[in-house]
Every structure is written in structure tokens, then in C-alpha cells.
Design brief:
There is one protein chain. 33% of the residues lie in helices and 31% in strands. By secondary structure, the protein is of the alpha+beta class. The chain folds into 2 domains: 110 residues, 3-Layer(aba) Sandwich (Aminopeptidase), CATH 3.40.630; 143 residues, Aminopeptidase (3-Layer(aba) Sandwich), CATH 3.40.630. The strands form 2 sheets. Strands 1-2-3-4-5-12-6-11 form an 8-stranded mixed β-sheet, sandwiched between helices. Strands 7-8-9-10-13 form a 5-stranded antiparallel β-sheet, with helices on both faces. The radius of gyration is 19 Å and the shape is globular. The two termini are 30 Å apart. InterPro entries: Acyl_CoA_acyltransferase, GNAT_dom. GO terms for molecular function: acyltransferase activity, transferring groups other than amino-acyl groups. Keywords: Transferase. This is GNAT superfamily N-acetyltransferase.
Length: 289
Amino acid sequence: MILRQIRDTRADAETVRLIAAEAFGALHSGPAQLPSEAEIAWHQARTRHLAGTDPQGCWLAEQAGQAIGFALSMRREGMWILALTAVLPEFQGKGVGRLLLERAAEYGRACLRGLITVSPDPAAARRFRKAGYSLHPTMRLTGPVDRAGLLDAGSIPVHPGNATHRELLDSIDRQLRGAAHGPDHELMLAHYDELLVADTVFGSGYCYRLGGSVTLLAATSKRLAVRLLREALARVPEDTEADVEFLTAEQEWAVDVGLELGLSVTSRGCLALRGMRPPVPYLPGRCFL
């Protein structure tokens, strides 16, 4: 088996997507759903983005010419983030994931803080705990939005954001998690459905929405976070179920909003942290945490 850096090419990006689809599909029962063209484009764009910004943090495992696993990671202002890692089912439990994680973690050796979202797979939780991370169990909100609960819009103005808000977004990121997302915002602005921003004398915040998923919400107060989450859920199409992931116990404000709007709460893996506590109020995205 060899490990090589993932290249910023369509071929490598598609290889990563196919491995992830097979690995994560094996964790779920029932028939697999074919991804949409938009989902395929997003997955490929994310991989190519990270291969371009953080080539030393993105690795592919190959055996006998076959790609069998990968790890995508990044460094942002003193924080190391494992965006995604997966191994083909038939090669799991053979040390491939451990070797990929070790190689990716070398890229973040000088970073004081670390952040990973961990799937419900027990082996993943075991691996990251052994690596010295604190595990914070997380919850997930899903279901159709009860529109009746959205009648009170609130007095805090929320408006669409764009690239001109980059400095504001980075400032909020640094306050909450100690590091800006930097170039990642450019990719999210290009592929997510919308960015919502609140900037008032009371503080600032933002969140992204992609279909029914409300992802990467950050605010300088719980009041602003509640307003942003309610606004984002109000914008979820009526024929689409909402999805808000990786809520720790510190995010009760988000749980309360979800329950008020008729969403269901289930357990959802862990948030693995090193050198920091869970940011509050903050909801990490799936890959750009």
C-alpha cells in the first residue's frame, strides 16, 4: 500500500467521492440514493479546493493500483481540521484509516487546536479518542418545518450575504473558534444556496443553507444565533425536510428552536476537539467546520 497526496484534478476528486459514497453507504440500511448533479459537483469542488489550499493535508491510499481510502484535512490560523476521511468497506479494520489519519495529522502537528466531526461509527470515535481528542456527543434535528411557529419573525434584521462580507465572517470565526475560515468562504458562497448575515449594534452572525441543511452557523450571541437559525429554517423549501447537525449540549438554544418548529431530535456521532471547548453559539458544517 502507498499513500500519495491528492491532486487538484477531476479524476482524483471523483475517486474521493466514490470511496466516500461506498464507505458511508455501508453504514446505512436500505437502498442507496443516487446523488444529484449538484451534490456530485459540490463533492468534487470541495476535494479540489482542499487539494489546492492544503495539499500536504490531503492523502489517498492505494493498493495494487486501486484507491482504497482518503483523508482530507486543512490548517486555518493555528487550527487543524479533519474535513473528511473514509476507507472502502472491504479494507476497513486493516489499519488503512489509522495510517491516513497519522499522515494527515502530521500536517497539523504545529496547531494548538483541532476540530473533527465524527460519524456514529464506533471505530471512528475510538480512533480519535486514542489520538487525544475530547469527544462531545452531538444531536441532529430533522423533519418538516412547522410553518405556524415561524409567524413571529423577530426584530433583528437578517439579510443575504456575499463576498463583501468576508472580513466580517472571518472576524466572527476568530471570536468563536479562534481561527477564520478564510478561503473556504469563497467555495461555500459559490456552491451553497445562500448566506445569511445579521450585523447589528448587539453583535454579528451568519449562517449558510444548502437545500434543507442549515450549516455552519456562527454568532456572537445566542439571541442572534436563534434569529439566524429561525430565518434559515423559514427559507427551507416547503417540500424539503430540514436538517441541522452536530449540536452539542452547549447548543440548547438550537435544540429549543428545532423542537418549537416541529423537528425531531436524534443522536448524531460526536464533535472531537483538541485544545478548545465547543464554540458557543456555533453550529459546525459537515466539512468546513
